[in-house]
Design a protein that fits this description.
alpha/beta, 11 helices, globular, disordered N terminus
Length: about 325
Amino acid sequence: MRLFSSRHGALAVSLCVALAAGAHAQSAWPDKLVRVIVPFPASGATDLVARVVTQRVAADLGQQMVVDNRPGAGGTIGTAEAAKAPADGYTLLLTTSSTHAISPHLLPRLAYDARKDFTPVVHLADAPSVVLVNPSLPVKTVAELVAYGKAHPGKLNYATSGNGTIVHLNSAAFSAQAGIEMTHVPYKGTALAIPDLVAGQVHVLFDSLPTGMPHARSGRLRALAVTSEKRTALAPELPTLAESGLPGYSSVTWFGVYLPAGASPALVSRVHQAFAKAMLAPEVAASLAKLGVEPAAPSSPAQFGAMVQTDSARWASVIRQHKITLE
């Protein structure tokens, strides 16, 4: 039997002490203020989601969490800053599909690598879109919209919130799968497109539920379907696009939390548990519903990471197929 020297024994003891201290530090998280970087402007959808969720997490943990808005360049500036932070749990990134599934394919010179520079922690919530048309268009279902588009090639146009946005990608994916030609009319936000849609100057818009549904329920616009995989409780009367003749079509803006790369499994688990618990609170779900957002189905960090990669591959294909750029 081989015996350890006193030097080896001392090293072993030191290592055990260090590991124990590290484990205690992770289990004690958080023992000081936590900064949550949101790479989008204050009062925007992501900021509002972050404030609803982190308020509950902070209350559960008994530790302050501060939302730090770092907007610019479609969310990529704040995301790059988060990538450079220590992976100690005191800087988190709360972001959307924009920074991790879309921008990497539109901005090849990003200051971060969406896969290598982050550790996925938790899939928080999803925001489906609604397909809106002008009521003067002689269609009441998605099937009728597709039939109309095929009977009138090149006559339909669709509004978006700008080149390369989720609204643009949703619309391009829809027209490709439906086999119809529609002309892209970009706006600086869907709020600017709504008046033209109501006036009949544009025909189709994939909008968020909170901004689109009031116009549909007032009769100014007609809602045909939602983009989520399943019907949403936010508009249960509407079928999904998959139900409406486009099998497999599913698109949502997801919200999730990341740690910088290098975070320990114990820390990832601790942060995941804290946020997952908060998402089960009825008041959190109620507040998110007002924003047109639904809590995501429970999943592990690994499942969240896999979902993001699937989403990223899908949008990469759409962007290549339609030669979409930001110009």
